[in-house]
Design brief:
heterodimer, A: mainly alpha, MetI-like fold, 12 helices, globular, B: mainly alpha, two-stranded antiparallel sheet, 1% strand
């Protein structure tokens, strides 16, 4: 019986669609949030009251419960009463994320980047602050350019925090549920039905617990495999440069 | 890039970041009818009734108290277990250390719902359902691995010579660890404490399932704003604004630890 469940899961074409959608989503999330977060951390002040102000501002989106984020963005993106929707409509684009799959994706990406880039930025900033001043002094004596300082001092020294930031963002975006579920409900059509939303549809909506269990196991293995590959890659990249 | 341009770009980003939060504040100061009635950049007829309701109705404000209790417990437990673990991972080499380190993180890789039934059965056996410690311990599932990972990164950035110098100077291990080592990685401790607080604060599934009344968290109370007449947007937005406050205070308190980096020559 169990083997059939796996077979059923592996040949489910809607599942394959959800899987590719999920890879696209997580890939875009990582490509946007990692460079943006590091960039913001580099821009942040090193001393003065600006430090406190930046840190508190960055933390704000992270502290809102996830289901509330989705709900607030429903209003925020409504073309009639929301700032985001109204602003885009004023640019002359008929924006409606409940009708157009592309608009739904753009809205979700904005929400995701808004919500989680501060996590990458906070980690990267803490990592930057842990670099001893002596490294910068040595670089100044050598007349190193800003790019050289970034490439050969800051980036290698941030490897630890960037590894955890990358893995966290990969795992959490791959398991994302509450925000898209509340904001788009997986629609329009199936265009934002990510893996976890589809899993809940099978398990709770259709009550197919067997295939759902088989699917959860495969789901976990996919996350595990990719996290492991990322971890290994980041362990080995630039080895010997910074020890 | 010169520093003026840097500041301008940063301020532009912060304005974008604050817009949704401003909109939430805007909603929280209006009645439901005003929110749905039409677009307004600021509350035309501001009212504090949503905040009054939350701060005077016990079923609302007890949620904040419960959340704060279990989140604080969780942050302390996570830090105290993760500090020694992270030190071991950063300083000692043993068989399978890299693998154990990576596998710690697998707790975060499965959908949280998978762990619900085991937790529920375990806590029922020990009569822990609906207590604060139950939620605090359940959240350790994802917070301890995270804390170990972040702390290990910071600890590995500290040269080993500092440990050795401290021993030569006659420090005992506990004294070295508390007096010398932890101050050196306080940026890491600050950021770890904040992340433990944050992930425990926004988690809904465990917190809701493992509690009924006595330890019911605010995030679960907020799901009740759906009534027969639809969602009460104003009330939900006000509750959302209030959920930001405790975490903002936490980061305010750890900001100095975050901002002060590494200072050589302290040993």
């Amino acid at each position: 019986m169990g083997a059939e469940w796996f077979k059923e899961t592996l040949t489910d074409s809607r599942l394959h669609d959800a899987l590719w959608r999920q890879f696209l989503f997580s890939g875009l999330v990582l490509l946007i949030e990692m460079p943006l977060g590091v960039g913001i951390a580099l821009l942040m002040p090193r001393k003065g009251w600006g430090v406190s102000a930046s840190l508190v501002t960055l933390a704000l989106p992270l502290l809102i419960p996830w289901n509330v984020i989705g709900t607030i963005w429903i209003i925020f993106t409504r073309p009639d009463i929301g700032l985001f929707g109204a602003a885009i409509n004023n640019l002359g684009i008929a924006f409606d994320h409940t009708a157009s799959p592309l608009h739904a994706w753009i809205t979700l990406m904005f929400m995701e980047v808004w919500h989680w880039t501060p996590l990458v930025a906070l980690l990267a900033y803490a990592g930057l602050r842990a670099i001893p001043e002596a490294y910068y002094q040595a670089a100044r004596i050598d007349g190193a350019s800003a790019w050289a300082i970034f490439r050969y001092i800051q980036l290698p020294k941030m490897r630890g925090v960037l590894t955890i930031a990358l893995l966290l963002r990969f795992m959490d975006s791959f398991l994302i549920y509450a925000e898209p579920f509340v904001l788009t409900g997986g629609g329009p059509g199936n265009s934002t039905t990510f893996l976890s939303i589809y899993l809940v549809k099978i398990a709770v909506g259709q009550f197919d617990l067997g295939p759902a269990a088989a699917f959860s196991l495969i789901y976990f293995l996919i996350v595990l495999l990719f996290s492991y590959l990322f971890f290994q890659a980041l362990q080995n990249v630039g080895k010997g440069e910074d020890r | 890039m010169n520093s003026k341009l840097k500041t301008a770009v940063l301020i532009f980003y912060f304005i974008l970041l604050l817009l949704p939060i401003y909109w939430m504040l805007n909603m929280s100061l209006q009645t439901n009818a005003d929110i749905l009635g039409g677009f307004s950049l600021y509350p035309s007829d501001p009212t504090l009734q949503n905040f009054t309701k939350i701060l005077t109705d016990e079923s609302w404000y007890s949620g904040y108290i419960n959340s704060m209790i279990y989140v604080t417990m969780n942050t302390l437990i996570s830090l105290f277990t993760a500090l020694p673990a992270a030190y071991a991972f950063s300083r000692y080499r043993f068989i399978g250390d890299k693998h154990v380190f990576f596998w710690l993180l697998t707790n975060r890789m499965a959908p949280a719902a998978v762990f619900l039934l085991p937790f529920f059965q375990l806590y029922s056996t020990f009569n822990l359902i609906d207590t604060h410690i139950a939620v605090a311990l359940a959240h350790c599932l994802f917070n301890v691995p995270l804390a170990v990972w972040i702390l290990e990164g910071f600890m590995s950035g500290i040269p080993r010579e500092i440990d050795e110098t401290a021993y030569l100077d006659g420090y005992s291990f506990p004294r070295f660890f508390i007096m010398v080592f932890i101050p050196l990685i306080r940026a890491g401790v600050g950021v770890t404490a904040f992340f433990c607080f944050m992930f425990s604060w926004v988690e809904l599934l465990f917190a809701r399932t493992l509690t009924t009344t006595e330890a019911k968290p605010i995030a679960a109370t907020m799901t009740r704003t759906v009534s027969a007449t639809g969602l009460d947007w104003g009330l939900l937005a006000a509750a959302g604004i209030l959920t930001i406050v405790p975490g903002a205070l936490v980061i305010w308190f750890v900001r100095n630890h975050l901002a002060k980096g590494f200072a050589l020559g302290r040993v």
